[in-house]
Automatic annotation (TrEMBL):
Keyword field: Glycoprotein, Membrane, Metal-binding, Signal, Transmembrane, Transmembrane helix
Transmembrane regions listed in the UniProt entry: 160-181
Keyword Transmembrane helix: yes
Protein name: Mavicyanin-like
InterPro entries given in the database record: Cupredoxin (IPR008972), Phytocyanin-like (IPR039391), Phytocyanin_dom (IPR003245)
One Gene Ontology term, aspect cellular component: plasma membrane
PANTHER family the UniProt entry points to: BLUE COPPER PROTEIN, MAVICYANIN-LIKE
PROSITE patterns in the record: PHYTOCYANIN (PS51485)
SUPFAM superfamilies membership: Cupredoxins
Residue ranges of every copy of the Phytocyanin domain listed in the record: 21-122
One GO MF term attached to the UniProt entry: metal ion binding
Signal peptide: 1-20
């Protein structure tokens, strides 16, 4: 395996953390009224970031997902939706920091607790790197950046470096640039 291939794989691995997490709303309970999941407790247990994905899974016969304003969220008014989702398997990418208010638009469901306030306070995933594959075949070359540092050991838990998506993205970008202009 050439150095270029190794670098490419490394960049892909590093930039994997830039793509954000996927949060299934309600976890195993999903988006429902059955057993009345507490979506506010669920949401407050997560740290949402820009670039993360919210996944709403539900039976579209009985539920949907309506993004509403803050005031409509509190009054369960779905007459002026920002966006309505109804596939039963909706992935919504968080576009910026702030609050996102989702309720079920079926009669009585929001009032019964099928509503969630997604608060996005951090934007570490916002720096995304467009990875462009080179057109020319990869020729093995001496690495100008020295040996690749080993990944942090899993036993030490999440390392600060890999928790910080932005830092990882910058490292990945630098490596990609070195590679491209090599
Ligand atoms: Cu519902």
């Amino acid at each position: 395996m050439g150095v270029g291939t190794v670098l490419f794989l490394f960049v892909v691995a590093v930039c994997g953390v830039c793509n954000g997490e996927v949060y299934k709303v309600g976890d195993s309970a999903a988006w429902t009224l059955i057993a009345h999941p507490d979506y506010n407790t669920w949401a407050s247990s997560k740290t949402f970031r820009v670039g993360d994905t919210l996944l709403f899974e539900y039976d579209p016969q009985y539920h949907n997902v309506v993004e509403v304003s803050r005031s409509d969220f509190h009054t369960c008014n779905t007459a002026a939706p920002i966006t309505t989702y109804a596939t039963g398997n909706d992935s919504i990418i968080i576009r910026g920091i702030g609050h996102y208010y989702y309720v079920c638009g079926f009669v009585g469901h929001c009032e019964a607790g099928q509503k969630v306030d997604i608060r996005v306070a951090q934007s570490l995933h916002s720096a995304k790197i467009p990875i462009q594959a080179p057109n020319k075949p990869i020729a093995p070359k001496a690495s100008p950046i020295g040996p690749i540092a080993p990944s942090p050991s899993p036993s030490s838990g999440e390392s600060l470096v890999f928790r910080n998506g932005l830092f990882s993205c910058i490292v990945g970008l630098l490596i990609a640039l070195v590679w491209v202009f090599n």
